[in-house]
Specification:
The structure is a single chain. The protein is mainly α and 247 residues long. The protein has helices at residues 2-25, 27-46, 51-60, 65-76, 80-91, 93-99, 102-106, 111-117, 121-129, 138-164, 176-192, 197-213, 219-232, 234-246. Helix 9 (121-129) runs parallel beside helix 11.
């Protein structure tokens, strides 16, 4: 009985440490998701759907920018095929995100399915940029980060719908919160890694694709170009990482 009690105590302590670490890592996402989620909730409520819709859409769909598009779909009479094509075009970037985590998510067993579902842009950035302490379980940290991020989004969306039902709200400029969030994550990753080549490749491909394809269609070409170039410069990146470890 005593050994079981000690084991339970250790598990609780490990859980607390994991949750604490994950919460600190997700603080930038907390502020970005709550405000962006509130914007979605307000717009959804103004379209005639209350906070219950906001809660379950965020719980089951959890698609960020695609949820904003969904508001127009719900009232626009769009056909099913058109919805599918539009959703794939908007969310296709997640195909590239998932490729780098296939093995890690497989190793998480049944929780790997949730990780695939919850892999947003911001969660992906955090998972890539974290230097998890050796005493913490990586799988548990990954799960905690993903779950916390989704909880922030659900809270923001639901809260926004509740607020929108009582007061009018001007959402002009609130979408900048997501831009600011990406800037913070980018700066943190820039200082965390010795090799800046992946970041530079992404920046160049992003700017070039924006100029060539325009703001409405540059993401997918930018991702394809980035992946191809990173495969070409794979050895250079590994050398940079090895130098960082040696230092």
């Amino acid at each position: 009985i005593r050994s079981k009690s000690l084991s339970m105590t250790k598990k609780k302590e490990a859980f607390k440490e994991t949750l604490k670490y994950a919460f600190i890592q997700t603080l930038p996402v907390l502020f970005g998701y709550v405000f962006m989620g509130m914007a979605f909730g307000i717009l959804l409520e103004k379209a005639g759907y209350n906070f219950i819709w906001a809660f379950f859409i965020s719980l089951i769909i959890y698609a960020g920018s695609m949820q904003f598009v969904l508001i127009g779909m719900l009232g626009g009479g769009m056909g099913l095929l058109s919805m599918i094509v539009l959703t794939l075009s908007v969310q296709s970037r997640h195909i590239f995100y998932g490729l780098s985590f296939i093995e890690k998510f497989k190793a998480m067993g049944k929780w790997g399915w949730y990780m695939i579902f919850s892999l947003t842009d911001e969660t992906y950035s955090l998972l890539c940029g974290m230097n998890i302490p050796k005493e913490l379980n990586q799988k548990q940290v990954f799960l905690a980060v993903a779950a916390l991020d989704q909880s922030y989004w659900i809270i923001g969306c639901t809260l926004g719908a509740v607020i929108g039902s009582f007061i009018g709200f001007d959402t002009t400029g609130i979408d900048f919160a997501m831009t600011a969030l990406f800037v913070v994550i980018f700066i943190e990753q820039w200082y965390s890694y010795q090799s800046h080549l992946p970041a530079l490749v992404g920046m160049v491909c992003g700017v070039a694709s924006l100029v060539i394809f325009g703001a409405g269609a540059f993401i997918l070409p930018a991702l394809i170009a980035s992946v191809c170039l990173l495969l070409v410069f794979k050895n250079s990146i590994k050398q940079g990482e090895n130098q960082e470890v040696c230092q």
